[in-house]
Design brief:
Radius of gyration: 15 Å
Shape: globular
Oligomer: single chain
Structural class: mainly alpha
Order of helices and strands: HHH
Number of helices: 3
Number of strands: 0
Distance between the termini: 27 Å
Length: 125
């Protein structure tokens, strides 16, 4: 998602990634273009939000970014270049199955956050 990243993907996957990124940024006010990737943070940082980190699929990384932001982390994106050399297996993300599961998780997370905020459970810090 970083403007200087080079990640070749088929156009359907590019469209899905763009839509998912836009939805995450709009719904959660996260200024991150791509929540899928390598994430580094202190182990105990998200302990307060452990019960909320419950997505079994690709959305888990989006949860880490979301709750990292709620914990007050400064989130920095680093450009990457993806090379297909030596990787015969290709993407493990199935656009239809994993994509629908991702969008379903997005809806569940939005509902969960709404309920938690109403009860005062996900304040920043």
């Amino acid at each position: 998602g970083h403007p200087r990243s080079r990640v070749p993907r088929p156009w359907p996957r590019q469209v899905f990634s763009w839509v998912a990124s836009l939805a995450i940024r709009a719904l959660y006010r996260i200024d991150v273009r791509d929540t899928q990737g390598s994430l580094l943070f202190p182990k105990g940082l998200l302990e307060r939000y452990r019960a909320y980190l419950d997505s079994p699929g690709a959305f888990f990384q989006a949860q880490l970014v979301l709750y990292g932001q709620l914990a007050g982390c400064e989130i920095v994106e680093i450009p990457v270049t993806l090379s297909k050399e030596g990787d015969e297996r290709g993407s493990r993300f199935a656009l239809v199955g994993d994509g629908l599961a991702f969008l379903g998780a997005l809806v569940r997370e939005t509902r969960k956050l709404s309920r938690a905020r109403q009860s005062g459970g996900t304040t920043r810090g």
